[in-house]
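Here's what a typical entry looks like (CoA-transferase subunit beta):
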Amino acid sequence: MTAATATSSELLSVVASRELAARRTVFAGIGLPTLAASLAHLTVAPELEIVYESGVCGAHPSHLPETIADAVLITGAEAVLPMPTLFGSVLQGGHIDVGFLGAAQIDKWGNLNSSVIGDWHHPKARLPGSGGANEVMANSREVFVVMRRHDPRSFTGRLDFCTSPGPDRALADGIRPLGAGVTRVITELGILAREGVGEELRLTAVHPGVGAQDVRAATGWELKTADDLTVIEPPTQAELALLREDVDPERVYLR
């Protein structure tokens, strides 16, 4: 398998890892965020400290965890904190540079839905819900979202339900969050970005062979495009080798 035939998981993990350059702490979920953070630690962010929702800070696992409570996270970790300390002191204390979140839906302001698809009382699908996502959204300095699907149903003009409000929506309700909310969204089509409060997500980069019109057609709102739209460098052989041979040789998440 070459860089040209990188899988979806590999593509998203590599691109997300590059966005972690110069960041110091990341609150990572299981799956693609773990892959991205682990790869970043080996490449663009060697000082990166990975924090998990189970309370593990500065994890140095011998292999990838399968859940946030996997015992492999504890061995060699810098600290294991109780939940009140993790959320009350680390997150609410403003000590997380980047929070990694996933969602079923996102809108142009970076609000996220991970609760239901369809009507709340008669949904087409019930999803896992918030977990710690609300705290991560409100208190991380910025939030990255990795989305496997980029279509008008996932990138929607109106969420079916708002699980994790970004700072714009929170401020409208009289709540002042610490962070900038979602600043990066990484998909198979490209990267959407915003700087913070008052800005919509806009298209800033596309993958080779993808045009801005393709991304606009797959987005459920009138997506703005950056004047300096760039083309993302494909995963390199070195990045893929690290992912496949060092980060996830057992294919826990790579597929």
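The mean pLDDT is 93.

More examples are in the samples folder.
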